Amino acid sequence: MADVPFDPADLVWTRVSGRLAAARLVVAACWLAPLLIGTVVLAVLVPAPWLWAFPVAVLALMVWVTWLVPRQVRALGYAERDEDLLIVRGIMFRSLVVVPYGRMQYVDVNAGPIDRSMQIATVQLHTAAPGSQAEISGLPPAEAARLRDRLASRGEARLAGL
Amino acid sequence: MSGQVSDPTSPPLDAPVWRRMHPVTPVLRGWKVFAGVLLVVGYQASDNISSATRVLAGRGWLLVLAGLGVVALIGFVYSAIAWRMTRFAVTDDAVHLRSGIVFRQQRQARLDRLQAVDVVRPLLAQLVGLSELRLEVAGGAGSAVSLAFLREQEAEELRAELLALSAGLHRPADAASPAEPSAPVAGAPDVTAPKAAPAFETAPEYQVYEVPLGRLLASVLASGAVAWLLLLLIGLVVLSVTTADFGSALFALPMVLGVVSVVWARVNGGASFRAATSPDGIRLRHGLTEARAQTVPPGRVQAVSIHQGPLWRRPDWWRVQINVAGYGHEESSGERESVLHPVATREEARTALWLVLPDLGVPDPVATLDAALTGTGSDGGFVAAPRRSVWVDPVGWRRHGVLVTDRALILRSGRFWRRVVVVPHERTQSLGLTQGPVQRALRVATFVLHSTPGPVAPRVEHLDAQVAGDLLHEQADRARRARADAAPEQWMRPPETRP
Fold it and tell me: Could you tell me the residue range of the domain that residue B81 belongs to?
């Protein structure tokens, strides 16, 4: 299958928490629900049947998002090797990033209000290259802390300037 | 005065000697504020020429003049206060800079993290013999330490001193003040440090190429910007003639000005461009109204790109750009700073690449580079994109290719806009692989190398998925090994004293 380069045989991917899907759905609902209500109200108030197309479209979008987000989250994964961290993401547009520990400049752990209520956090690795985009969302806080300390200590051991 | 600045956060243990910028600085700085305001006002007025002429027709211009005078005064006074508050000091391992009027800032740039040192001379500063010294450290936007303005002599000496210190040489132990130390420590390579009055003498340099003005002008004339300008002008003339309304042409004025400024930037930045090699690294000198002398120490160039537009194909000219951490953040000057050669012949492009990477890691570098610059398919041992990628890139698919040498990764792309990117293995930051749905169906993938911010974005599209995947993992491995053997950050430090 075409997946081979994205899924080397000798790697075990750690998948992120399923609660990330819930968190992302909450965020999506926060702006889709008012949109749905707004379009429904508009369609009820204005006597023009074609206006119902908007709530239907929003509803379709909601269904699509509910279907897509859990799959996206299941596609997120990372693997720690001795010398580098691998992050894989995406279903349609797949991407795999390899970040050597020695290239890491600093590590961020972020958690917004929704993330915190869902007990997840995001670990972000920064290298000197802005294109690295090495971000792992949906980690349980304990795992995030472990990963952060581990990355920091490994980075220190292998630091090689720029 | 010194008591006022020495707040509890300040004095480091080795008691640096604090120095001020040259006293003429506020005048030069104030002028900048003035020019900025003038530019904004001028731009606003040019948008609305009819009303601007009405204002200037009466005694309005006196008012405008008075306003400008007030602006100039404010700019000057502000700059004068800023100058009083700005001091810098050089210690053995860092440059300290204190500045700020209301919000004080103390910045400390570690010399072993120095990425480049530039001596910049804007037009006015050139006239009065002053220079700005800019230190680039790889800390993101606005992380450069700017020492403006210093006397030319002082700036040159300071640059030599900073480069020597960041190379790992030591100041003589007895010299407490940075002004009079006599000789560097014994055992250091004496190329950078003969015994002389300044602490460190400028390293000797050997010029490797110079851009003739004629070629530069011809190359700018043959650039895309000029082609656009011509199209625009023709369009304007046609429009004005057909509608018999010349006022409408004024609307296009900002666009024309934009193109002209791009062209001017090219000419200005590339004028009297010279490159030299020295033990301190690559030295670049260029600029007409703003003269700039850059020094990029060894191992600081993260990636090189050599590219050519369709109009440059006949004369076989190439533009060589580099990624240096710290350059490329400033929107205005990043474009200029990152140029290694504004218009190179094939021969000079090779030399420019050699400056960065003396050993390409292949038996026949000339043939390899030729294959990279103009070759297609598997010329020169390149791993090319497979034939089926014609469906995703029908024009350029033959040019996508990658070659791994012992020292670097060479990426080739572009059929009409040819581009070759060279990334030394030890400068690889992180790596990526991406694949869209069409690529997936074709079993191809895009290989991306992440480099520091700058004009060079190393990537190669549509490689065979299996090949790209293998390349990714091999390259991660190779980059790690190359880093382990890489030259030290302090490039003059003898190996045994390396930490």
Answer: 22-85
